[in-house]
Amino acid sequence: MANRIESGLTDEILPLLQKEQYVLLSTIDFELGTPNVNAISWIYAPDAQTIRFTIDNRSRIIQNIKANEGVVLTLIANGSTYSIAGTAQIIVEKLEDVPLKLALLELDVKEVRDVMFYGAKMSTQPKYEKTYDAQAAAKLDHQVMQAMKRG
Fold it and tell me: Burial letters for 68-89: b for 16+ Cβ neighbours within 10 Å, e otherwise?
């Protein structure tokens, strides 16, 4: 996809966003008017034009999106880096059947760009591990994913 602009998620990217995935979420800070970047992982793309994600409903991200719905998700995968831009809205203020106070948001994908600089490729994909109880993490991940799939 290098040097191409797509209007939706490609067949290569879509499956990557149908499971927990490390991405960066960029919003515009509602007070400062400057970019604000957060790492998130609860993400689910039901189709090529839509990405759902969950965040703590007390997060500054909520206030930022209420003030300016333009967002960018950055995905590092398939040897490259992708900028996924669009508008986000809050779908549910508090997800049911999930023990945390999580909001469900939905991104309407407008543009996908391969933003990797010329002559390079990512040699590894970012990896992370949960630092709390593995069994509790797996249960919570399952609950959140099911809630995102239901919308």
Answer: ebebbbbbbbbebbbbbbbebe
